[in-house]
Amino acid sequence: MAVYICVMLHSLLKTTLLIALFAFTAFSASAQKVIEPKDTPAEWSKPYQPFRIAGNLYYVGTYDLASYLVVTPKGNILINTGLANSADIIKKNIATLGFKFKDIKILLTTQAHYDHLGAMAAVKKQTGAKMMVDEADAQVMADGGSSDYALGNGVSTYVPIKADRILHDKDSIILGDTKLTMLHHPGHTKGSCSFLLDVKDAVRTYRVLIANMPSIVTEKKFGEVSEYPAIEKDYAYTFDAMKKLSFDIWVSSHASQFNLHTKHKPGDTYNPAAFIDLKGYDTYLAELDVEFKKKRAE
Ligand SMILES: [Zn+2]
Asked: Average pLDDT of 33-48?
């Protein structure tokens, strides 16, 4: 009988502990609730063969969500991480190229949206790399996008990330023999940005622009975006600044924006010249400018 009571008590205690554990887990999950939008295009989650774009710059993203790896003798820089489910794709892509995931020392993003920061918290945790972000996106990144003026409605769309370094317009990010210059290109998010860097191979040096193209996300009129009063002025600044940039190669946050899949096919050999496409940049920027002017006139 005593043994029976003891077993009873034991299992009761176990049940109580389990309930307590469950309640705690549920509580901490709701305290940091993350809901990534589910209706995303299939190309965002589709794997793509990683490849060398030019010099020490590599494409390691998914079919459409661009992630870039800058390889240096002092470790590597990863720019953008796609959706939460992109983490394994990026990890595998880096290994396929013969680099070590753990060698990532610096993390950057072109904009604080869930389709570019989805896996960032996980990558940061696994690598211990330092996250650097444009000052104007630091807050929204720290709340997982819940305060985003267009996509946030109080719920995080990605796991929040705390910045290790705040970047301002024209700041340098230096690792090994490579220097990136951050260019503040606000509008799409308050702290959207692009990066300029020089890369070289045995033949020549290329100036590369990793661009955040200023597409419009809000469905409201500019004057009605109360969370972002400077939105119209910021977009105007960005279009002006982006029209003046000079570079040899450009790539962007989404593969579709710079026609990656017409410039590169799986199995292609190294061909940086395929990414020299100033006309493509000017044409796409002009298309977005038309959208901006339409929105402005509303
Ligand atoms: Zn976006």
From this structure: 94
CA 10 / ligand 1 centre spacing (Å) = 53
Q: What is the pLDDT of residues 236-263, one digit of tens each?
A: 999 999 999 999 999 999 999 999 999 9
CATH code where residue 252 lies: 3.60.15.10
In terms of residue numbers, what domain contains 177? 40-297
Ion ligand 1 residues within 5 Å by Cβ = 113
**What is the distance in A from the centroid of ligand 1 to the CA of 255?**
13
Per the domain annotation, does 14 fall within a domain?
A: no
30 alpha carbon to ligand 1 midpoint, in Å? 25
Q: Is the pTM of this model over 0.85?
A: yes
If one compares 18 and 108, the residue with the highest pLDDT of the two is 108
Task: Look at the chain and report how many structural domains it folds into.
Answer: 1
Residue 11 lies inside a defined structural domain of this protein: no
CB atoms within 10 A of CB 46: 12
Q: How do residues 62-85 score in pLDDT, each as one tens digit?
A: 999 999 999 999 999 999 999 999
Looking at residue 269, its amino acid is T
* 13 CA from centroid of ligand 1 (Å): 49
Distance CA 122, CA 8 (A): 42
Helix (H) or strand (E) holding 194, with range, is strand 193-200
Q: Give the chain's largest Cα–Cα span.
A: 87
